[in-house]
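Ticket opened by: R.M.
Priority: normal
Category: complex prediction / small molecule

The reporter submitted a protein together with alpha-D-glucose-1-phosphate-6-vanadate and asked that the result be attached to this ticket for the collaborator who will pick it up next week. Submitted input follows.
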Amino acid sequence: MDAFDVPTQPIDGQKAGTSGLRRQTRDFMAPHFLENYVQAILNAIGGAHGKRFVVGGDGRYFNDRAIQVILRMAAANGAAEVIVGQNGILSTPAASHLIRLNKTDGGFVLSASHNPGGIDADFGLKFNMANGGPATEQVTDAIYQQASTIANYRMLEAQDIDLTQIGDSMLGDMRVRVIDPVDDYAALMETLFDFDAISGLFRSGFRMAFDAMHAVTGPYAHRLLEERLGAAQGTVLNGTPSPDFAGGHPDPNPIWAHELMGIMTGPDAPDFGAASDGDGDRNMIVGRGAYVTPSDSLALIAAHAHVAPGYKAGLSGVARSMPTSGAVDRVAAAKGLDCFETPTGWKFFGALLDAGKVNLCGEESAGTGSDHVREKDGLWAVLMWLNIIAATGKSVGDLLADHWQTYGRNYYSRHDYEAVDSQVASTLMADLSAKLADLPGSAFAGLKVTEADEFAYTDPVDHSTTTGQGIRIMFDGGARVVFRLSGTGTQGATLRVYLERLETDASRLHMQADDALAAVIAAADEIAGIRARTGRDAPDVRT
Ligand code: VG1
Ligand code: CO
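Result attached by the on-call engineer:
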């Protein structure tokens, strides 16, 4: 087997967004696109010689082909070993765990997460570092630098490796270890949660529905929930990963997980419902007729995590992304925990987790996780909720009601305007940014602005800084609106508007979020001129 250099040229825009490089699948399949980016990664980390990596993905279209290319390139660049999930399958949190467990030098995760899959949909590649977490901005900048100047990449002439069989084989001088994608992850979960208590819950007749959305969590959920914890067969819906997620958006929110929402609000609804996304790092939690916002889920977990064996010593601190609601801050304040506010994207939690400053993190976009890995983790959140339900004996609805009673309720909603003209979206943000200094003191829809800024962050551990992370406008009385452009889309721009208002009046804790937020929604439109600029009457997605 010969290794050889292939001459190439830089391809425009190989710059990671919020979570790796995401593009339309056909772009990734175009000549040299994947190869350039993989070589840029290997160059940016100082070469692959003698190194070990983990490789796997969410099973979407092109996953299998991309893995064979990465294997050949790793071998040609002198890597010593690559650990691959059987059939190329690894959830993002499972990949993070394998990197840590096997002390590898990093890993390649193939996924566009909640974006649809298929030849006419999206694909993505994310490089995770030796701590198991997404590459930091310094590393993604170095990768971009390499991709912008690349002149050749190294390739091995070889046949495909059979990924259907568990076991070791050699690719040139590199060992390829094909492993069961679920075993190690399931073993880790067993160390964190009270599996006896959760199986007791199922034995007592507790019913659950888990929607794997035809994506990667199917095999993990079948093993953990049905086989290991004794939930009834049929608990896991849509549990076979499909290359195009059966044509759906594997995004666990009430809009895209409408099948599950129908079950949970229908007659004879189970006690508990949950869903996860394409690559298994997001979660949706829903009780019988009770949807839990991700921000509330984070806060509730912060309040109760000590009931789970892996967290019985209590939390060391918590962190949330800036657009996530302040609900967890209220729990942290009550418990005397440090609470950090970071930019959007899991890469910003890594240093805090590594330093032991926090062991619970979350994002409003349905990401929750802890220091057990360095990614958000969908099934982890589901098991945490099951453990809390088993330990308290309370329903999801009662847990929420009690939580709001104790801490107040941060009414919360996110409005997304998708595929907006990029120019319109960037002008909207630039105009907002230009008038920030003038906003304090003015009133919009009856709400008085107290502060307005553009979020910048200095990491308290490594002191790296990042700017331009979203515009925040705070109002009198604890309401807030945040504007940000998505960094995961592949077409035009997606404007995200995050709306929040704190309510502590015990008689007003059970309103519809849109009613409770009506004034904040009106103020957001007045300040940014969303309708006038985009020509849209309403957001495409409200979560
Ligand atoms: C979105 C979410 C963000 C999340 C990111 C990756 O980013 O808002 O909270 O970390 O997706 O999640 P953006 O830039 O589109 O708002 V995943 O599950 O795609 O790895
Ligand atoms: Co994801």
